């Protein structure tokens, strides 16, 4: 007999019968002024940090008829928005202009925070030179907000960070430096009449997957954890107005940890498949064929794909926020360390593969003309942060190769990048003049059949040449 009850459902079966919204329905905040403003689209939203996360979020609120003010210390971004332009490839200028018509503006003047009902922080969280969390963007922003903080305002952190940042780092600064001695609301009841000197604080992680057009941003459930139940409910109401589903958790730390679990899961699984790729190469097996076959299993397997190394502002960085915090609890996060070691080694594997492929042609890396195809950290996006292509280029140059690159999204690789490279994109002409073409990022725009046809030798790190049977192709 088949039993369809939820209690008997295995954890890796689809969960599409879950309710659309996990926020408990209640009327406890029925007369709350901020909740009412949110529902009536009267709440004014301030978004601090108008980068890859903050700008799309501002547009989403704007689409839902909220008046949004963006805050950024980068004057170039503020000016571009003032002129109705965009500086992110996948966001068209027409979207910025539509938002402006809806009241969207950008400023670098923090004094304007006093006008806001809700303030959402989307600033970077990188690692420092010792591979430790660099919270300076969060603390700088918090110091800048504090003197302008108003009673009743809701402050939400979206930047990815270790559990405890919101309550242990941000809240004390806000309380200490706010005018009039404001305090973060900590009452355990939602019915508490909002004290005159309280503000509300929550954490809600950003879960965007850049370049993924299969899932609309508003369809990605939004996890929310407030310092107290009322902060949770207010943040839930705010995000519930632009996202299809909100998922409340018991605390900001639980929400912070949720985001890290998601990214560590990804990082560790990519490392696993990268390691198995190296083994498959040695055994003469095609890892991509194996993954495709394993993916036909309708449960218990989620495919991850090998590549030339990790990139982006999230997966190579976020896990180490947790490793660092874990030390405070005398705990070693061995999976994270091992995954980091394997993933960081992948650009070196690519270098060795290029050397091996050239060797087959009786050539050496030293003096070889090499074209890197695709430098973005993943396909079809304009983001170069932590891209393995930068490491591969640097390694090739150190070995004496003459390196050019092509990427439709980057006319230049400018100074100030990871390795201070200064390179100008070459055009996709005369491919035959290169001793080796290395596919590092498999942008959809490339005609791989044509590239293989014209090239002398192709090293493919992404299986972009799948189905092209040619002795010129080396998959690594
Ligand atoms: N990019 C992604 O795909 C992604 C996905 C999920 C989570 N995240 C997380 O979101 C956060 C932001 O990432 P991002 O990719 O948008 O970064 P980003 O570098 O694209 O944007 C950050 C913006 O913050 C601005 N900024 C820095 N300090 C500021 C300050 N004191 N005041 C005002 N503005 C300031 C910068 O000028 C920049 O415009 C990070 O914690 C990241 O880990 C990013």
Short description:
34% of the residues lie in helices and 13% in strands. The chain has 13 helices and 16 strands.
What does this structure look like?
The chain contains 13 helices and 16 strands. It has 476 residues and is of the alpha/beta class. The protein folds into two domains: 17-258, Rossmann fold; 304-475, Rossmann fold (3-Layer(aba) Sandwich), CATH 3.40.50.720. The strands form three sheets. Strands 1, 2, 3, 4, 5, 6, 7, 8 and 9 form a nine-stranded mixed sheet that branches. It has a five-stranded parallel sheet with strand order 11-10-14-15-16, with helices on one face. Strands 12-13 form a two-stranded antiparallel ribbon. Strand 4, helix 5 (136-145) and strand 5 (154-157) form a beta-alpha-beta unit. Helix 2 packs across helix 4, helix 8 (252-283) packs across helix 10 (318-327) and helix 8 (252-283) packs parallel to helix 11. The model is unreliable at 1-19 (pLDDT under 50). Nicotinamide-adenine-dinucleotide is lined by residues 48-54, 71-74, 77, 122-125, 137, 140-141, 144, 159-160, 206, 208, 210, 313-314.
């Amino acid at each position: 007999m088949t039993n369809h009850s939820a209690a008997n459902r295995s954890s890796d079966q689809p969960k599409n019968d879950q309710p659309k919204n996990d926020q408990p329905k209640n009327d406890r905040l029925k007369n709350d002024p901020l909740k009412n403003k949110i529902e009536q689209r009267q709440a004014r939203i301030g978004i601090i940090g108008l980068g890859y996360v903050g700008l799309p979020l501002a547009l989403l609120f704007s689409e839902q008829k909220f008046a949004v003010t963006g805050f950024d210390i980068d004057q170039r971004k503020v000016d571009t928005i003032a002129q109705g332009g965009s500086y992110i490839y996948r966001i068209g200028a027409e979207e910025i202009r539509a938002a402006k018509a809806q009241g969207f503006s950008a400023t670098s003047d923090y004094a304007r925070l006093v006008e806001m009902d809700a303030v959402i922080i989307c600033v970077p969280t990188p690692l420092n030179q010792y591979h430790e969390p660099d919270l300076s963007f969060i603390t700088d922003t918090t110091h800048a907000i504090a003197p302008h903080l108003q009673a009743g305002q809701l402050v939400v952190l979206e930047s990815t960070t270790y559990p405890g940042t919101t309550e242990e780092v941000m809240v004390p600064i806000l309380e200490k430096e706010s005018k009039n001695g404001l305090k973060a609301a900590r009452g355990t009841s939602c019915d508490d009449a909002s004290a005159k000197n309280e503000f509300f604080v929550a954490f809600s992680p950003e879960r965007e997957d850049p370049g993924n057009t299969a899932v609309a941003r508003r369809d990605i459930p939004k996890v929310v954890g407030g310092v107290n139940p009322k902060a949770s409910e207010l943040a839930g109401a705010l995000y519930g107005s632009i996202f299809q589903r909100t998922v409340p958790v018991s605390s900001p730390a639980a929400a912070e940890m949720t985001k890290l679990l998601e990214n560590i899961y990804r990082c560790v699984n990519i490392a696993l498949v990268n390691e198995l790729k190296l083994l498959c190469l040695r055994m003469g097996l095609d890892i991509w064929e194996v993954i495709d076959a394993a993916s036909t299993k309708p449960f218990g397997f989620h495919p991850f794909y090998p590549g030339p190394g990790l990139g982006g502002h999230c997966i190579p960085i976020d896990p180490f926020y947790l490793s660092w915090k874990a030390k405070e609890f005398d705990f070693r996060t061995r999976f994270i360390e091992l995954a980091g070691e394997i993933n960081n080694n992948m650009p070196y594997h690519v270098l060795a593969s290029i050397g091996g492929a050239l060797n087959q042609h009786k050539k050496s890396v030293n003096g070889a003309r090499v074209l890197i195809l695709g430098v973005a950290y993943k396909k079809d996006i304009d983001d170069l942060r932590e891209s393995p292509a930068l490491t591969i280029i640097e390694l090739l140059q150190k070995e004496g190769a003459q390196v050019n690159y092509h990427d439709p999204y980057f006319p230049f690789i400018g100074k100030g990048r990871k390795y201070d490279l200064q390179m100008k994109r070459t055009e996709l002409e005369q491919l035959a003049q290169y001793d080796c073409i290395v596919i590092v990022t498999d942008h959809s725009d490339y005609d791989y059949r044509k590239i293989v046809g014209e090239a002398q030798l192709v090293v493919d790190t992404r299986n972009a040449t799948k189905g092209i049977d040619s002795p010129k192709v080396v998959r690594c």
